[in-house]
Amino acid sequence: PIYIDIRPWGSACSIIAHTFVRIRKKLPPKIAGLLLSGILSDTLNLRSPTTTEHDRLIVAVLAKLSGCNDIDALADKQFAAKSSALLHLSPYEVACGDQKKFNIESPKGDSVCVGFGVVETTDPSGMDRRIDELMIEVAALKSEQNLDYSYLAIVDIVNLSSKLLLIGKAE
Questions:
Q1: How far apart are the first and last CA of the chain?
Q2: What are the helix (H) ranges across the chain?
Q3: What's the DSSP call for residue 112?
Q4: 113 contact partners, CB below 8 Å, separation of at least 6
Q5: 153 contacts 163 by C-beta, under 8 angstroms
Q6: CB 87: neighbour CB atoms within 10 A?
Q7: What are the two backbone dihedrals, phi and then psi, of residue 50, each rounded to the nearest 5 degrees?
């Protein structure tokens, strides 16, 4: 059987790094840097509501092991690179990039299918300029995937705010 370690932490990278520390296995600096980058991305530089004290502790350990002297600068560079790359993606790629599909059953036994996509950016104005084309793609996804409801959230990771695109009356 496969061993699975699931914890209510902000990043799977925190769990992986914790495992290395727990079994006293040395983390090479480049691997420590990759895990550090993953945690910073997943937890929005430790500002996400899903961030835990475990994530914060592991980030401190990984920063030391990787030789990262400025965690905030690393996170800023990551977020800027991701935001810049988003501007070059097609509307379809943006809408599908981080979309999850949920099948929800009501107490009455009715089934509802919801699609929810998220775009995280440091420059929401770039996505705002593309709202019309993004709405078309979200509507197409709703139809193609036979969803009852379809949403796309544009998350400003600097100001920790979101804009939710509603494509129809149902939403």
A1: 42
A2: 12-22, 29-42, 53-66, 71-86, 91-97, 124-128, 131-144
A3: E
A4: 101, 102, 103, 104, 145, 146, 147, 148, 149
A5: yes
A6: 13
A7: -85, -5
Phi and psi at 114, nearest 5°, equal -120, 135
Identify whether the C-beta of residue 163 lies closer than 8 Å to the C-beta of residue 131.
no
Phi, psi of 24 (to 5 degrees): 60, 40
> Model pTM?
0.76
**Counting beta carbons within 10 angstroms of the beta carbon of residue 83, is it exposed (0 to 12), middle (13 to 18) or buried (19 or more)?**
buried
Q: What is the DSSP track for 132-168?
A: HHHHHHHHHHHHHTT-SEEEEEEEETTTTEEEEEE-S
Tens of pLDDT along 38-87?
999 999 999 988 999 999 999 999 999 999 999 999 999 999 898 888 88
Q: Record the tokens describing residue 161, joined without a space.
A: 């705010």
Structure tokens at 28: 């090479």
